[in-house]
Amino acid sequence: MYLIVVDGEIKKIGGSGATGGIKSTLEIYRDGGVKGRPSIRSFGVWYFLYHTILQGKKIEFYMIYQENFEKEVKGLFGLKKVKNVSISYKFIEQCCVEDYLSVESEHPEWNVQEQGADWPLEIKNSHAQLQANAQSREKKIKRKEVRLNK
After folding, report:
1. How many CB atoms lie within 10 A of CB 52?
2. What is the pLDDT along the chain (150 residues), one digit of tens a residue?
3. Which of 41, 62, 110, 125 allows an S-S link to 11, with CB 3.0 to 4.6 Å?
């Protein structure tokens, strides 16, 4: 999971189980997903980052992870010793959120959905335009079509 910190203040606590790891997760923040169809959350955080950069503020990214460990895991025929077990980032993220809430009593500013808040209208409108543009772009077919047996 990761933290986005601006001028020493935690602005976002987040994480993802995306294929490609944390690098893939943070990739969206480089260009706001202008070549794809990002979620409002991904686009909104990119928008905040972009405007923070324009203000000349210091932005830092931190990663918190749990080392893999050895554990007995259930299989078809009982327990097996597994040497490289990992846990979901969600558990780490939840611990970090609980710690943050115990001190600040509210979610970080850029954790908009977790606050139960709505995205600013400027972000919603920009995101809607990006989605509309994605619909009109020529699609690249990267995979072969599955054939139906009749």
Report:
1. 17
2. 999 999 999 999 998 877 777 777 788 777 777 777 888 998 999 999 999 999 999 999 999 988 889 999 999 999 999 998 988 889 999 999 999 999 999 999 999 999 999 999 999 999 999 888 887 766 666 777 778 876
3. 110
Is this model's pTM higher than 0.85 or not?
no
Domain that holds residue 80: 2-116
Q: Dump the DSSP string for 45-109.
A: HHHHHHHHHHTT--EEEEE-----EEEEEEETTEEEEEEEE---HHHHHHHHHHHHHHHHSS--T
Residues in the chain: 150
Closest to 114 measured CA to CA, from 26, 12, 16: 12
Q: Can you tell me the distance from the alpha carbon of 63 to that of 4, in angstroms, rounded to the nearest whole number?
A: 9
Domain membership of residue 137 (yes or no) is no
For the chain, the domain total comes to: 1
Q: How far is CA 41 from CA 47, 76, 86, 99, 148, in A?
A: 10, 40, 26, 22, 36
Q: What is the gyration radius of the CA atoms in the chain, in angstroms?
A: 20
